[in-house]
Amino acid sequence: MTVENQDVLLEVEEEEEEEEDGEVGPPQDLNIGLHSQVHCMAEDLLTEPLFHSPHLVAQLVEVSSVHQRLVLAGVAKVGDLLDNVLEEVEQTIVPSYGTVPDQQKLHASEWAEFDQKPDSLFFNDGQRRIDFVLVYEDENKNENRKKSVNKKQMRKRRAYESNLISNGLQLEATRSVLDEKLIFVKVHAPWEVLCTYAEVMHIKLPLKPNDLKTRDSAFNWFSRLFRVDENIIKPEQEFFTAPFEKARLSDFYIQDKDIFFNPATRSRIVHFILSRVEYAVRDNVKKFGINKLLDSGIYKAAFPLHDSRFNHRSEDPNCPNERYLLYKEWAHPRSIYKLQPLDLVRKYYGEKTGIYFAWLGFYTQMLSVAAVVGLACFLYGYLTKDNCTWSQEVCDPNIGGNIIMCPQCDQECTYWNLTITCESSKKLCIFDSFGTLIFAVFMGVWVTLFLEFWKRRQAELEYEWDTVEFLEQEEHVRPEYEARCIHVVTNEITQQEEHVPYTACGKCVRMTFCISAVFFWILLIIVSVIGIIVYRLSVFLVFSAKLPRHINGTEAIQKYLTPQAATSVTASIISFIIIMILNIIYEKVAIMITDFELPRTQTDYENSLTMKMFLFQFVNYYSSCFYIAFFKGKFVRFPGDPVYWLGKYRNEECDPGGCLLELTTQLTIIMGGKAIWNNIQEVLLPWVKNLIGRCCSAARSEKTIPRWEQDYHLQPVGKLGLFYEYLEMVIQFGFVTLFVASFPLAPLLALVNNLLEIRVDAWKITTQFRRMVPQKAQDIGAWQPIMQGIAILAVVTNAMIIAFTSDMIPRLVYYWSFSVPPYGDHISYTMKGYINNTLSVFSISDFKNESKPVPLPWFGNQTTCRYRDFRYPPGHQYQYEHNIYYWHVIAAKLSFIIVMEHVIYCVKFIVSYVIPDVSQKTKSKIKREKYLTQTLLHENHLKVVKKKMGKIADRIWKEADGTFRTKYD
What we know:
This protein is α+β, with helices and mostly antiparallel strands.
């Protein structure tokens, strides 16, 4: 340091001693330099491979506070003091992180007996709140394992708990009332720890009550009828919020320290610490995190507490009884007509759970509109089915009764009468009507409205629940990712070294393996679908040989039990069973592949798993429907030259009425069976497990059980949380949109299922499961683009179903072109003669020997049979080739697909453009919050700093100016 600088600093020190009011501070440039030095040190520490210990973070926060004290105290001996602080931090960091303190003094949990207060949520002192509970089995009383294993687990557990205490948490252990082997460790986070980690995690907390005027909607009077009574569940007060900063504590809206951090936020902070505290070191690799301890069996459970019993209010006057309120006003069956109390759901379970139920409720509300329109289209088809001319011709003994159809398989099958399909043709008139076309177009627009309005609703929730900037500020690296960070790379943006778990080559290898594995299992699903097709082809031969093909009027069951119907129903049931079995396998496979892929954050992990699982489920659930809709009966040629599968099995043909009814049957079985199975699985399984647990603990009725032990005997929440709930609903969304042209009642079935699903899910997580760890979520994640992709694909599939699977286009072509001259004989447009015109003629003498059937006695002296196609008859110049009707139909089908797609896509584009993603009301709130944040947290402090630093800055400038003048003069 030069003499001139020393003189300046001495004069500054003298001036500080003269200023007793503390208004004089250090120069701004020096302050910035000091802050930069601390910031650089923090960045260097953050680039260490295993820096994510809460203890390290606390040390850095302490350095920051020391920095602020230095700023306020002045610049005297700043360099020496800062060096001492950095040295102290370095000495603290090196020995404390990642070592099992065998040679150090271990911190132990406090021990306390149960105070016979079953509803208490506090330690025995009644002051410290229980934020988390850890459960383990006392190693000294575990005789099933070897002593060496018990000692090893005990050593890791003690080290882990010691490090928790070192990081500021407070622990109190209590032995179980029902099982003396179990020990419950209650965890409490003091105020200082909560403030420290709230800043580390960038948690947004209240600044000021929302002062924007709210406008009541015109529909408020109507929705008020279905809302929860505000006297029972009080509306949450709205605040403007900002990321918490410990140094600016006075700027936040703190009326009571005990409630400033709500229980959900406290649990989330404690879980963050539990996931990052180490417990052992092996081969210079640090092992840390509660998840690994749970997987290895060192701890049996880790969960936050429910605040009360679900069916009784707590006797503790300090308990908010939010669980009881949720059960009574949300999860109870009698509340099925009420709107969901989403703010309380979010407050109790966290934003991630809240946004799922918000999405599910919004989806259900939108389904009500689609269900009404779909029901109207179904009723239209049902009321007009008796006027269906082509169905009347099939059932007419003088028309359909005189038409002999060609066999649909080789040798075993024989000729059959067209009237056997009378009942199926009547049913087909219900679904294959003009109303179906209108409904398909409507659903193409509906799905766009649903997605666009959901974006608006999601934007409102993002603001109200403080998740607008969540991904940028609060998303942290997964502990599993941190543990593998052994490779050093240079960040292209910051040009700083950072640690990653694999190199670019290693990442390429991992991605190649994962993609290959995904495609392999998808191909395996396709193989199973092909197996179902082979089953259909082979079983159809059996049913054709066993079931009678001619209606004699004495056996009514023959009208329904046709070979086609028997094959379709049995194949659908077997397909559903295989789908359920494959789901169990693919779930484990997708998780293994994603774990190997090693995503960086929890959001990345869930998005990656979501895409894999959806691809599996998409092929698994929809492949059979795609086969029936677009492949069955499309490539059969004619009886004398049929198409064979694998050179052995003759390809399936559709009924004379088409495959639309079979597609409807398939959808009904899969949708209905899936809904019933999922509800049984979601309701009965956890209820039965909890019932067995209660029966095994007969002493429960004789003893007072604490809150933490009651929760322990509930079912644990899976690692993936609500993932399977989303998957179930999105698969349903696909059925509702992709194939709705064949089944207009699908939205109605989905609506009924979802009304039950909301309450079943609410009942399940409120009564049968432990309280899940509250988590942040900005939106519904990867499910949003998946639904957008389904919406785009749905337009194509529905257009192709109407064009190629139903008979609507051939009927319209016949009505407008081939019923009148020059192709037809009728004077005016009519549907009469449609059946005869669409069934081609085949000469039985043209059968090959290996496929020629044995005629039955009733067949008589017939020389021809009919089949479903548009081909020239035998004896024609172009016999068995496609006729002019076929090419007219193909042209009409392609034109219809193009026109329908373009119309719907144009409407979708206009609708998505007109409806903004964020409403003006939400935009105003966001702007207001940013303004307040800038005013309260930045401008006010800048004014204070400017006031304190003004005099000393002027003094330094004068001295510097004098120095330069002396030097150059």
